[in-house]
Design brief:
150 residues; nine-stranded antiparallel sheet; 11 strands; 3% helix; globular
């Protein structure tokens, strides 16, 4: 997957993916055990195209590289790449890329007594109440997080 930089902000860098080239990678035919070890599989004949697996709506999908730690308890860390689909409607509990008063932020969407809240996933940060005076827009829904483990 080749990414083209399209926009930079203080907290996120935005990219568009080049999906014109298939990216088939070997895929183990059986699930990998996250518990006790299982006998090794010798066959990796099936392929997975990450472009097709991660992107349902190519014209509405963008990527953003995360800066900051407000979503660390949701498994989103500094340097992770978010797959963001702008065609999806926001639902309570979604992790969304939001545009708030001139800045982008990634937070979980919640309702509290009928008030829209942006919830960080880090106790060092406070929830953000979205009032009628706020310049607010859900820019897209985070559908995948690409997290570097090493």
């Amino acid at each position: 997957m080749r990414l083209s930089s399209i926009h930079h902000t203080l907290f996120l860098d935005f990219y568009r993916a080049d999906l014109s080239v298939p990216l088939p990678l070997p895929l183990a035919e059986t699930a990998v055990s996250a518990g006790f070890p299982s006998p090794a599989e010798d066959h990796l004949e099936v392929t997975l195209d990450l472009n097709r697996a991660l992107v349902r709506h190519p014209d509405a999908t963008f990527y953003a590289r995360v800066k900051g730690s407000s979503m660390i308890e949701a498994g989103i860390a500094e340097g992770d790449i978010l797959v963001i689909d702008r065609s999806l409607d926001a639902k309570e509990g979604d992790i969304a890329l939001c545009f708030l008063d001139g800045e982008f932020t990634v937070k979980r969407i919640a309702m509290d007594d009928g008030v829209l809240m942006l919830m960080p996933e880090n106790s060092a940060y406070s929830p953000i109440r979205i009032g009628e005076e706020s310049d607010f827009q859900v820019w897209g829904i985070v559908t995948y997080v690409i997290h570097k483990s090493r």
